[in-house]
Amino acid sequence: MRKAFFITARRSLPALIVLGYCCASARAAEADDLTAQRSKLHKSFAATLEKLAVWCDENRLATQATQTRRWAIEREPGKTYVFLLQESAGFPEIPDDAPAALAKWRDDFVAARRAQAAALFRLAQKAATARRLSLAYELVMEGAREDPLNKKLRPLLGYKLHKGRWVTSYAAKSLDRGKVDHEKFGWILAARAKRYEAGERYLGRRWRKADDAAKIMQGDVEKGWTIETEHYKITTNSRWEEGVRLGRKLERLHAIWRQVFIGYYAEPSEIEALVRGNKPIRRRPRKHNVVCFRTRKQYNDFLRSVQPRIGITLGIYFDARKTAYFFAGEDQDEGTLYHEATHQLFQEMRPVPKRIGERNNFWIVEGIACYMESLTPRGGYFTLGGLKEGRVPAARVRLLEDGFYVPLAELVTFGRKDLQHDKRIAKLYSQSSGLATFLMHHAGGRYRDATVSYLERLYTNRADVNTLSKETGVSYDELDRQYRAFLQGQGEE
Helix crossing, 13-58 with 100-129: angle to 10°? Predict the structure, then answer.
């Protein structure tokens, strides 16, 4: 959040400090109340679904009983649950001549979900009023999961009706150009789909067998396939299908990143307008450049001149080139993909100066990218965070068993070279990951907006060594204490 403070000349510094911490305490209490209300909604909804599932059991609707129970998510403390609205999302379909019991189940299931969505939207508006903007948008997206055909909500989230289907603007334009989004081959001309499925590829204005096309492409990566998605331009000399799979992973990350860090690229007024159903957040779409090599050796050989230690990496993003580099094959790591793509998004989703974190605060640049390594698909939704995900287990060992910890008041003074040339770099990366997770999840996300604001100030060259403490309204000593308690399993909720 962008904040402005107006200080009168008559007010003393001690009075200002007391006022700042009082405001922080008030915000914390308000945050806790919103978190409690959300928890109450989740419990009430789970109870409603269980009651419906029991009715299904009594009426011998075993499949529907299972489906109803699975819809209720058992939430773990210290995690964010991310829901992405899909084009195909809807409610269960039943035949027109379905038995009365089956029809009643569907009607009750839909009614329960729509009632939950309405409650979530109301709570989202309360969160927006309280300036808990990250939580507000999170609640809107959860509401979209429960009421996916909401005609007012879909346009706000970037969808439009196209021949009776809700699709994104990008998909609508692609369909109008005669393309289809093939599960295996991505966006290709519909007229070519059958030949692609038959093992042919269109290359050099002629059709070739897939294996022959792959051999032609496996040389110079810069002359490889160009695969475009809504937000990425992928160049690869691996197989076409590999580039498509990479594109789908990146698009998924892009959507999740936009949701979690909405306050980084959107103004508070824009977020509030969306939450209140008044106006969508509009940004001119841009393509992020990604190169995927067929082999790790090609990756190493191509990049060694610009990064002599490229052999120890599994992927890398160069902000000067505005390009992320990866390689195909079994050695590729999904966590690295999320890490480097996160760097790319923070650099490219808004105008930023060069050399971010050069003087101080570099820990959060790496910490937040490490945090995104915890992204885990759960079947219909995703989770971020948790004490057992990503590098947080290592952070717990460092602090709770090894006794290693650099106090925040010292860590924020580290610039890029300070951190990257430190002999303790592995330990510092683990700690940075743990701290980022703590800031995003402590006490139901109490510091999440402050963390996003901290990132926004850093990436616009307006952060100093006191920024994190100012944004959270808490001293570094107190944050150190809360972090230890968080890693000990206390205070996640």
Answer: 180
3-state secondary structure of 380: coil
d(CA 133, CA 437): 18
Crossing angle of the two packed helices 62-71 and 100-129, in degrees rounded to 10: 0
Rounded Cα distance between 137 and 257, Å, is 12
Residue 492: which pLDDT band, with cuts at 50, 70 and 90? very low
**Residue of 370, 391, 392, 364 whose CA lies nearest to 451:** 364
Instruction: Give me the phi and psi of 60, to 5 degrees please.
Output: 60, 40
> Given this model, what pLDDT does residue 10 score?
36
In whole angstroms, give the CA distance from residue 294 to residue 216. 12
Amino acid at 326: F
Q: Which residues contact 271 (CB under 8 A, 6 or more apart)?
A: 128, 133, 136, 137, 262, 263, 281
Enumerate the H helices of 99-218 as residue ranges. Answer: 100-129, 133-146, 153-156, 169-176, 193-197, 210-217
Map out the domains of the chain as residue ranges.
Answer: 37-160, 218-350, 373-493
In tens, the pLDDT along 38-77 reads: 999 999 999 999 999 999 999 999 999 999 999 999 998 8
Query: In the CATH scheme, what is the homologous superfamily, with its name and number, of domain 218-350?
Result: Collagenase ColT, N-terminal domain (3.40.30.160)
Q: What angle do CA 215, 306, 425 make, to 5 degrees?
A: 115
